Amino acid sequence: MITIQEVSKVYSLESGDFFALNNNNIHINKGEFAAIMGPSGSGKSTLLQLIGGLDQPSSGNLIVDGIQLNNLNEKERTLFRRKKVGFVFQNYQLLPMMTVSENIALSLSANKASKTEINLRVQQLLKDVNLEGKGSQFPSQLSGGQQQRVAIARALAMKPQLILADEPTGNLDQKNGEDILALLSKLNNEEQITIVMVTHDLQAAAAAGRIIVIRDGEIVNDQKKGVLGHESMASSLA
Ligand SMILES: Nc1ncnc2c1ncn2[C@@H]1O[C@H](COP(=O)(O)OP(=O)(O)OP(=O)(O)O)[C@@H](O)[C@H]1O
Ligand SMILES: [Mg+2]
């Protein structure tokens, strides 16, 4: 599903070149739920943005769902993001002047779906994330956990095979965080949606079947869940 080959992201600073990502190789299979962990500034969000086509690498190849991202022009990149990837962010990134339904429908409208089609899909998505009846409210009228569930519904609107989530539980309390992780796990288990989730929280990462640890732009650990869960990861995160 995701193949990353010798990918680097370099920023030219006055002090010289800074490698936000340095020559990384990763393969993530369809249906995997992978967590990306590592200290602040280690390159986690940068990596997610490259996978999602929000940003381009300085060198190396990214292949997502059979598409070589390097070869896409701006327009193709926009279509790739809209059709192939659902993004979920820490601060939800809902549009405040739009209702919950309008937020969920954004990519459907952009893709010129019919009104009937949009309404049906939005009703189904509201049901899927347990927000039935909230469609005509505005984001500010919802709790943080509810807003994040709107963001997940929006991410799912185009039926993407891949969800990229950057600290999706970062702004939530324990209970709401667990609900969001349960929802992501359900999508992964029942619909085989591939999920790549950046998190600081080992408890959140435990929802994933694999933990990839980045430090200073390099992958320093990459482990699938074993019989002991992720316990053996603790040392590389310390
Ligand atoms: N536009 C930019 N110009 C220069 N440096 C940048 C730019 N964008 C990001 N960086 C640097 O790249 C590094 C990786 O940033 P990134 O946002 O990926 O970190 P992160 O692991 O997501 O951190 P956090 O956990 O705090 O979100 C950081 O050191 C950051 O300062
Ligand atoms: Mg980040």
Automatic annotation (TrEMBL):
InterPro entries: AAA+_ATPase (IPR003593), ABC_transporter-like_ATP-bd (IPR003439), ABC_transporter-like_CS (IPR017871), ABC_transpr_LolD-like (IPR015854), MacB-like_ATP-bd (IPR017911), P-loop_NTPase (IPR027417)
Pfam families noted in UniProt: ABC_tran
UniProtKB keywords: ATP-binding, Nucleotide-binding, Transport
GO CC entries: membrane protein complex; plasma membrane
One Gene Ontology MF term: ATP hydrolysis activity
ABC transporter domain boundaries: 2-237
Record SMART domains: AAA
Family annotation (PANTHER family): ABC TRANSPORTER ATP-BINDING PROTEIN SSO1893-RELATED, IMPORT ATP-BINDING PROTEIN
Family membership noted in the UniProt record: Belongs to the ABC transporter superfamily.
Protein name from the UniProt record: ABC transporter
Organism of provenance: Neobacillus bataviensis LMG 21833
